[in-house]
Amino acid sequence: MHQPFVLRPGLGAWPRLLLLALLGLVLAPLPGLAQEAPASAASAAARTASAATPVSASARRVYERARTQLLQIRTLLKNQDSQASVGSGFLVSDQGHVISNYHVISEAALDPERYRLRYAMPDGRAGELELLDFDVRRDLALLRLKGDGLRGASGLSFRPREQPLSKGDRIYSMGNPHDVAFAVVEGTFNGLVERSFDPLIYYSGSINSGMSGGPVLDEEGRVVGINVSAMFFAQQMSFLVPAEFAQALFQRSREREALRGPAWPRLREQLLQYQDSLVQGFVAQPWRNADHERYALPVPQEDFMRCWGRSTPADNKGLEFQRSQCRMEHAVFVSGQLQTGYLQVSHEAYEGSKLGALRFAKQYSASFRNENLGRADRQRSAPRCREDFIQADAQQGPPLRAVICLSAYRKLPGLHDLVVLVTTVDGATQGALGRFDARGVSFENALRLSAHYLGGFGWTAARPR
Fold first, then answer.
1. Which of 260, 290, 322 is the last residue of a domain?
2. What pLDDT is attached to residue 31?
3. 313 in the same domain as 229
């Protein structure tokens, strides 16, 4: 049996050296290392409205003014015209700059030797596109038309930030749904999504597959958002990236040369910056009270996570439990096989006095063993784990059994998936099992998150004597 680690009273977290020891085996060299579903065909998030809605005169007017700036963006195989995916985009300058979603062009960004980008317009004009830059955190891409065929054509303008929309304002989403034809969908601005780490607009309108990357315009034809995703199994629940982020991407990258080669280094740079911001915001928040009679358990604030809970019925005659699950509802899309950049926290508190100590121990241990800690795939290495027993000060909290695992990203060196699995080991017929997952974090931030999570376990005011 391992010797227990000892926490000094008042620290509320693991000392750094102990965490380094626990994770010491994880970062040995590994071979081969280098919000919703998107609404494009590449992400298979197709959803159609339950009935056709007549288009208003305002919608027709806005569409007719904007149609010459709309594009369908197709990802094709390099040496043939076979279509891999399709989305939408729009012109934002007379120099041929185009805004779309990152997920619309991700295949071409990550594998340019295999894929190429081509556009088509409502009037039949078509041509090639090149990628200048992207903002993977906000699922945006900046492209430019190749050649001079459309140079000089005007772009759509952005609504000024100092003129915010009001809830209930009519806005108009545009794109090419299901590769059928360019279309306009009239809907309502409903403010920003609650419990989202980055701002997202909640739009009451039907964004369908193929419309990702298309503009959403106000009554004057100015861009207020960009189509990005839709809620599964729901109607009229769609999400937009606020236009200010597209405008910022355009302003800072409009003079860049086209990206050459796979975009993994640029992705890594942006994801490392994002996870720093995410972790800093998360660890700055205190844990909430789980309302358990024995244990203080780490339940996150709901500023950018959503939590659900349930428990066994009052007349249950076997193992009783209380369960809490909290998760960020939006992830960062990297590819069709990899989404990252999110956190989730859960716990189950068990009471087994009706079972007796032996039967309780059997079921309690099985719950710990049945947790899936991940496995190797094309995107990540196999998890490298370390298990130990942690003895907190008796007045601070219960002794814990902990497993910490890291899986390295093969093409994004320095980023990992973290799993922390914890169980209390103090009670014969009581216990709590907790789990913390972080997708796409650095080693240093894995340490910070592990310490923050483990520091959330303790006794309630009614702790045992």
1. 260
2. 32
3. no
